[in-house]
Design brief:
globular, alpha/beta, 53% helix
Amino acid sequence: MKLFIDTADVAEIREAQSWGVLDGVTTNPSLAAKTGRDFEPLIHEICTIVDGPVSAEVVSTDAAGMVEEGVRLSRIHRNVVVKCPLIPEGLKATRQLSERGIRVNVTLVFSAAQALLAAKAGAAFISPFVGRLDDVGHDGMEVVGQILEMLDHYTYPAEVLVASVRSPIHVIRGAQMGAHIATCPFGVLSQLAKHPLTDVGLERFLADWRKARKA
């Protein structure tokens, strides 16, 4: 499984990159707005930190506007992936951008039916929002399983990107199912590395080492 970080915070991205486990970055207009920075220079800087896909989302809601934005965003850096929402206009834009050789991450996917349309439109990545599905009483990971099972019968190039991740459980269940990617907030990435027994074990080792050096 590839691990992406879901943030526009450059400090978080640099720290996660230093761990040697980061494969890409996803951003969205909300995350970018929190930084207070101009969007395109921010995306370019992120692309210089992580040598992998960096998703940058369009804000237009019509296909022509999405395509225009997508082409502009794709010129920022070779690593940029254009995010388009799963609406009919977004499907039109996904087809047009993919035919130009521009990778598209279709976002705001909440069902296997939507994922099928995204795959057929030429998406490079399909992003089911598991946390938001959980929030309304659905099992978000069940939808991921349905999407993976469905796509396994065909030759669509789309990768399934588990998004709206709220806990390490989402990541582990996604990996068990064979999801290609999980994108996590920095806090969840940090939790993946944490276990109380690791902390206790390390402290015991260090305490024993200090005793041995005093002997």
